[in-house]
Design goal:
Length: about 200
């Protein structure tokens, strides 16, 4: 008499093991996460370890060095936009998007890759200041060129001669695209140093 072992073979093939400890899993001791399956004990241990690593990223942040890195990134971004304008005689606002990216990356680089809400706020503030200064430099270039073409001896200087002049130069010819580029700058400054968040526990 022949014994049918097909069912036994199917059961063996369908058995799952923990991706961490290789323990055979049961329906009550099985957690799927990140495309891999773990036993509940290993999953809890790995989750706790990941939580500690993420918490460490927002601790012991030197905001002095973070500010230095952010300002350095802002200066580079502002000069890149202004330099592009001087060389090409075109005010290409899309170049300004680099400001938010460089500011956030600078803040993170000078803190060893830290992430926190504080760094997000710092990056946004520095990005806004850098964008405004860059806008002044770009508009100043076009205004002075226009004055020279008209034979006017007055020149907009840097630093500006007055706060009123600074405001007028920065807001000259502001349009919807300028607002859109500024929004992207702020978004990048907020997105890049955003702390990681662990997804909710699997059922």
């Amino acid at each position: 008499m022949m014994v049918d072992t097909s069912n036994d073979a199917t059961l063996l093939e369908s058995e799952e093991t923990c991706a961490e400890c290789s323990k055979t899993l049961t329906s009550n001791d099985r957690v799927l996460s990140g495309g891999r399956t773990f036993c509940r004990s290993c999953y809890a241990s790995l989750r706790a370890e990941l939580q500690r690593a993420i918490s460490t990223q927002s601790q012991d942040i030197n905001y002095g060095t973070a500010a230095f890195g952010a300002i350095l990134g802002g200066v580079v971004g502002a000069l890149a936009w202004w330099g592009f304008t001087v060389l090409t005689h075109i005010s290409f606002g899309l170049v300004a998007v680099a400001i938010g990216f460089l500011v956030a990356k600078g803040a993170m680089a000078f803190t060893g890759g830290k992430r926190s809400t504080g760094l997000q706020i710092l990056s946004i503030v520095v990005s806004l200041a850098s964008y405004v200064c860059a806008s002044y430099l770009v508009n100043m270039t076009f205004i002075n060129r226009s004055l020279a073409e008209r034979g006017d001896t007055f020149r907009v200087g840097f630093p500006p001669q007055s706060l009123d002049l600074f405001f007028k130069v920065v807001t000259a010819n502001v349009g919807l695209m300028d607002i859109a580029f500024l929004a992207i700058v702020i978004f990048e400054a907020w997105r890049i140093p955003k702390p990681f968040v662990i997804p909710r526990e699997a059922a």
